[in-house]
Amino acid sequence: MAKAPVAGTCKTRLCPPLTPEEAAELYAAFLEDLARELPQWADDCDLWLAWAGGDDAPLRATFGTGFRFLAQRGETLTDRMEDVFARMLAAGYHAVVMRNSDSPHLPGPLLDAAFEALHGRPRGKLVLGPDLGGGYYLIGTDVSIDGVLPRTMSTSTVCQQTIDGAAAAGLSTALLDPFLDVDTADDLAMFWIEFGGRADVGHWSTYRFIAGSDLPARLEALS
Predict the structure, then answer these.
(1) Rounded CA separation 46/113 (Å)
(2) Residues 34-52: pLDDT tens digits?
(3) 64 burial level (CB within 10 Å; 0-12, 13-18, 19+)
(4) What is this structure's pTM?
């Protein structure tokens, strides 16, 4: 799930300390890293980019031929997520895992674990990757989940509401390890403490964007 990186429409909860233009540039860097890293992980699954917002041409240029593209449909995020799952399952996929575009550094083993949790029978399974703010960075299922997701997303109780909705629908739920979803300035500061100290990410677009700006100093002032 991703949006076109247009200033004023993406990562708005990072403003301030970022400007809308900086937030869009940071998000574009996230997408560039996802476009490079995910094909290296995906050996036996298809990669789809479910996109929203404006023209999809920039996203197609970023993600290229390694991805298939699906326009999001629906008024709310809940509507759009349910629709993506329904269309993928109707296309014949036995399991669908939806990950965010706000955690470019999400380890591949967490994606492996998500598919493993959905493997085999009986059907009627849900897997969630909780983020540190009460939501989730990943959700997967092997059946339709219409009516399971909360009507209002991006709150501190979304993960628990989804667990409750799954239980009410008779689905079994597996939880992955918690991981960071970069939504707020505090999240970004936490992200940079971990990501900025790694020796293996100097070529990443996200690293180059942050390290080449005054963002580290601004983020340090927040801590």
Answers:
(1) 16
(2) 999 999 988 789 999 999 9
(3) exposed
(4) 0.94
Contact residues for 23 (Cβ-Cβ < 8 A; gap 6+): 7, 10, 11, 12, 14, 15
97-101's contacts with Cβ under 8 Å and 24+ in sequence apart are 97/127, 97/138, 97/139, 97/140, 98/1, 98/50, 98/138, 98/139, 98/140, 99/1, 99/129, 99/137, 99/138, 100/1, 100/137, 100/138, 100/181, 101/1, 101/2, 101/3, 101/27, 101/30, 101/31, 101/34
Is the separation of the CB atoms in 134 and 160 below 8 Å?
yes
pLDDT under 50: residue ranges of the chain: none
pLDDT of residue 220: 85
CA–CA distance, 169 with 156 (Å, rounded to integer): 22
Tell me the β-bridge partners of 64. Answer: none
What are the structural domains, with CATH classification, of the chain? 16-222 (3.90.550.10)
Distance CA 132, CA 155 (A): 12
Helix, strand, coil distribution of the chain in percent, nearest 5? 45, 15, 40
- The answer to whether the CB of 210 falls within 8 A of the CB of 216 is yes
In terms of Cα–Cα distance, which of 43, 212, 183 is closest to 101? 183
